[in-house]
Amino acid sequence: MDRTDDDAAVAMARDGDADAYEALVARYTAVAHRTAVLFGAGDEADDVVQEAFVKSYRALRGFRTGERFRPWLLQIVVNETRNLHRSRRRRSGLEGRLAAVLAPDLAEIDPPDAAVIERERAAALLSALRSLPDRDRQVVTCRYLLDLSEAETAEVLGWPKGSVKSRLSRALGRLQAALTSLGDREVVADG
């Protein structure tokens, strides 16, 4: 399904074709789920995605012709995840967290040295990413973990495109500094 297919499916879904909307759900469930997890929904990612699809279906009449469906939907997923964070803070007082998705759970097998090193690098990257302020973490997540374009990132986050470029540049600098700092701490701990 390409953009033309998305446009046609949205138009048919607006006219009440449930199968057309089901095709959109099937196409974008995986990326919506990944987005929810990467933005910190954790175990509640399925609920966030379901609510986002319900809200997007209800909002289809307001969907502007010519807009791209994917970033519009992901913006709803991000907003639902933000709502979850607000709800979590109200209920438990805990800060939002970024779910660990970069390294699979390989505890049951004995991986070769290369796999161990790769997992350690992924864990260090995740730790450094978690240490970033929310906006920095969000822009890096959209651009590099979700592989969104600058325009799509701007749409998802509700930022001007120029802000995406400047914030991404600053965020990458902070991420590099955090990784360097983590490396220094490992050297001190090993020494």
List the helices and strands and how they pair.
Layout: H1 3-14, H2 18-38, H3 45-58, H4 69-92, H5 113-131, H6 134-145, H7 150-157, H8 161-190
Helix pairs in contact: 1-2, 2-3, 2-4, 3-4, 4-7, 5-8, 6-7, 6-8, 7-8
What does this structure look like?
It is a single chain. This protein has 191 residues and is mainly α. It folds into two domains: 99 residues, Rna Polymerase Sigma Factor, Chain: A (Orthogonal Bundle), CATH 1.10.1740; 92 residues, Arc Repressor Mutant, subunit A (Orthogonal Bundle), CATH 1.10.10.10. The chain has eight helices and no strands. α4 packs across α7, α6 crosses α7 and α7 crosses α8. The longest helix has 30 residues. The relative contact order is 0.10.
- Shape by Cα distribution: elongated
What count of helical segments does DSSP give?
A: 8
The CATH class of the largest domain is Mainly Alpha
Counting DSSP E segments of at least 2 residues, the number of strands comes to 0
Q: How large, in whole angstroms, is the Cα Rg?
A: 19 Å
- The CATH homology group name of the largest domain: RNA polymerase sigma factor, region 2, helix turn helix motif
**Percent in helix:** over 70%
Largest sheet: none
Oligomer: single chain
Q: What portion of residues belong to β-strands?
A: under 5%
Distance between the termini: 54 Å
Q: Report mean pLDDT, rounded to a whole number.
A: 80
SS class: mainly alpha
CATH topology of the largest domain: Rna Polymerase Sigma Factor, Chain: A
Identify the CATH architecture of the largest domain. Orthogonal Bundle
Instruction: Give the ordered list of helices and strands.
Output: HHHHHHHH
